[in-house]
Fold this sequence. Notes:
This protein is of the alpha/beta class and 265 residues long. It has helices at residues 20-26, 31-36, 52-61, 77-83, 125-133, 188-191, 199-213, 222-235; strands spanning 41-45, 69-74, 91-95, 110-114, 141-147, 153-160, 163-171, 240-241, 250-254. It comes from Nostocoides veronense.
Amino acid sequence: xxxxxxxxxxxxxxxxxxxxxxxxxxxxxxxxxxxxxxxxxxxxxxxxxxxxxxxxxxxxxxxxxxxxxxxxxxxxxxxxxxxxxxxxxxxxxxxxxxxxxxxxxxxxxxxxxxxxxxxxxxxxxxxxxxxxxxxxxxxxxxxxxxxxxxxxxxxxxxxxxxxxxxxxxxxxxxxxxxxxxxxxxxxxxxxxxxxxxxxxxxxxxxxxxxxxxxxxxxxxxxxxxxxxxxxxxxxxxxxxxxxxxxxxxxxxxxxxxxxxxxxxx
Length: 265
């Protein structure tokens, strides 16, 4: 007999195309996980009042793996019932929580949870991270993220079965004044750590300084300015991944550099 779902019902607000920044990262640097998976199962955990993000996730990841199976999981049975009308090839919905209730011994290669843990207490985050990680496939990935209402700014922590590996920050560059404006969208594990002495605060402070010093590149556009700022950060010793993504307004840094209480000196 299946136990009760682990978690609590969230506000469930969502919008079409809200999670595009994370989706294109999953279909880009993380695509190898899907390509080599024997069972390309992807979970949209806590998709909210509308299943639109699960539909979009399936459509975007089909470009990587045509036989991808996206499972939308929600703790609210009313939301699950409402989503069934959109179920079809490569997309299903079921009730559950952080325990990731899949059939048999199936394990997901990707679990995406956006704007879910943001609504929980910070102290509960590690236990929920651990539970989801325990359900992943060997090369699986759990993404715990947060974004604004229409996806202009997004931030997410990527975790593998062994633990967290990176933090990604993504901005719409047009109209950006300071990169640190993304601070209010940091995932729950970091949002209260943006204070003097914490690594994530140093990251954002250094990034603002690099952005200011790169002002001369603005003549060529915000994209070139951002690329220059990111290059400055890397030269300063920040362990940034995927430089080919900088032009998209996206930075990925090793988790060890921003983990609470430690990081880059």
